[in-house]
Amino acid sequence: MKKVAVIGAGASGMAAAISAARSGASVFLFEHKDRVGKKLLLTGNGKCNLTNIKMGPEYFHSGSDVDGLIKSVIRRFGAEDTIRFFGELGIYTRNRSGRIYPYPETASCVLDALRLELRRLEVKERVLSRVTSIKRVKDGFELAIKGERQYTERAEKVIICCGGKAKPETGSDGGGYKLAGELGHKLIKPLPALTGLKSELPFFKALSGVRADALLRLFIDGEERESSAGELQLTDYGISGICTFDISGSAVRALDRGSRVEVSVDFMPEFTPSQAGVYLKNRFENLKDRGAAELLNGLFHKKLNLQFLKLMGIRENTPYNELPSDFSERLCGIVKDFKVSIKDYMGYDRAQVTSGGVALSEVSETLESKLCPGLFFAGEVLDADGICGGYNLQWAFACGIIAGRSSVL
Ligand SMILES: Cc1cc2nc3c(=O)[nH]c(=O)nc-3n(C[C@H](O)[C@H](O)[C@H](O)COP(=O)(O)OP(=O)(O)OC[C@H]3O[C@@H](n4cnc5c(N)ncnc54)[C@H](O)[C@@H]3O)c2cc1C
């Protein structure tokens, strides 16, 4: 019986262990925290967005996917496969606009299902066991493990599933990068992704707590690169919320290389600029007896209304007939193109994933290392990150299943 060591018991590690054990291997699963699957419990605000029906490589980013590995992985194990995999473990799913959740919308039932399957397959779980090094030896690998005691374990195949650096308190502290590096692998610089973006503009403190449906356009060195729509959250440091997260990977990488980053917020995304202009002009004509702030009441959040007026240099109680003649045009310009210069980003403690990691160009279609045969990678430790919506767990599960199965061939 082939002996497979899986390092890291997150989503990818548990899937890899199940897949290798189902293929007939004797599997050891090492986890340095006191229990498996800590991060899984946080996913989807505790509801666990398992995958997404709209699946394709366009929902992922990688700096090293020269061979189309992402496409190959999700073709070989796609959203339907994830739904079937969990269905067989007793997890009935629900579809919320393409996002797939367990029916009770609790992450704990997903973790329990995985744990029950690990137990049924007699996977040997070793918690409080940190793999500190992996050495190549004849017929396999020797792992150094640090826990209550220090010891070594041999395995014919090893799957590194250590995740990235996001939310280090769950155990993902970049340990996998060190192990990969020692075995000769190149790293694409890890950076936080799916995270908030910081601005130094003075008004964010006053706007903190405001939520608004918006369209965000990301400009890097003056050029529009990406856009994302959804609920924007304004915070005391800048912008957050899913639409911010989805453009944050590109923004963070641009800031890291010293580029100028700006986000243009459209607070009336359902209106074209000319429709918005006409609507605002008519609205103000009809509400002539009101002061400036009252004219905006019912249009945007009160804190935003006041901020828009401030940016135009207009006092909130200015009567309609004293407002500048181009008031509606100027307001339209601001609400359709509210410019936020981005100076920094929230770190790993607030990020949901890590962009960068082990270069995809250095692993084969079966996720085996091209440099070190018998060594496999799965999940976020690899240089691939998805947008919000179930893509990162899909990547973790798909890689785990493929690597686990392949490790036993
Ligand atoms: C708050 C939050 C919400 C999220 N929500 C969603 C969502 O709803 N849907 C979605 O698709 N994605 C979501 N994600 C992203 C998703 O959770 C991750 O991409 C995914 O869990 C990565 O799985 P992984 O197995 O690759 O890594 P991880 O889950 O990070 O697991 C790695 C494991 O390896 C262990 N480890 C590390 N080094 C060692 C070592 N040397 N020895 C032993 N053990 C080690 C760690 O302790 C950890 O348990 C969310 C992330 C966060 C933080």
Describe this entry's structure for a reader:
The chain has 409 residues and is of the alpha+beta class. The chain folds into 2 domains: 3-191 and 354-407, FAD/NAD(P)-binding domain (3-Layer(bba) Sandwich); 196-346, no CATH class. The chain has helices at residues 11-22, 69-76, 79-88, 107-120, 175-182, 204-207, 242-256, 273-286, 292-296, 302-312, 327-336, 391-407, and strands at 3-7, 26-30, 51-52, 60-61, 93-96, 99-102, 124-126, 130-137, 140-146, 150-155, 157-160, 187-193, 197-198, 211-220, 223-234, 238-240, 261-266, 338-342, 344-345, 353-358, 375-377, 385-386. The strands form 6 sheets. It has a 7-stranded antiparallel β-sheet. A hairpin with a 2-residue loop joins strand 14 (211-220) and strand 15. The longest helix is centred in the C-terminal third of the chain and has 17 residues, at 391-407. It starts with a strand and ends with a helix. The mean pLDDT is 97.
CATH architecture of the largest domain: 3-Layer(bba) Sandwich
The ligands found in this model are: flavin-adenine dinucleotide
Gap from first CA to last CA: 12 Å
Determine the fraction of residues in helical runs and give it as a percent range. Answer: 25-40%
User: Structural class, from helix and strand content?
Assistant: alpha+beta
Mean pLDDT reading = 97
Dominant shape? elongated
Outline the low-pLDDT stretches: none
Q: The biggest beta sheet, please?
A: 7 strands, antiparallel
Radius of gyration: 25 Å
Q: What is the number of strand segments?
A: 22
Q: Could you state the CATH homologous superfamily of the largest domain?
A: FAD/NAD(P)-binding domain
Strands in their spatial order, largest beta sheet: 18-17-14-15-16-13-19
Just give the CATH class of the largest domain.
Alpha Beta
Domain count: the total is 2
CATH topology name of the largest domain, in short, is FAD/NAD(P)-binding domain
Strand content: 25-35%
DSSP helix count?
12
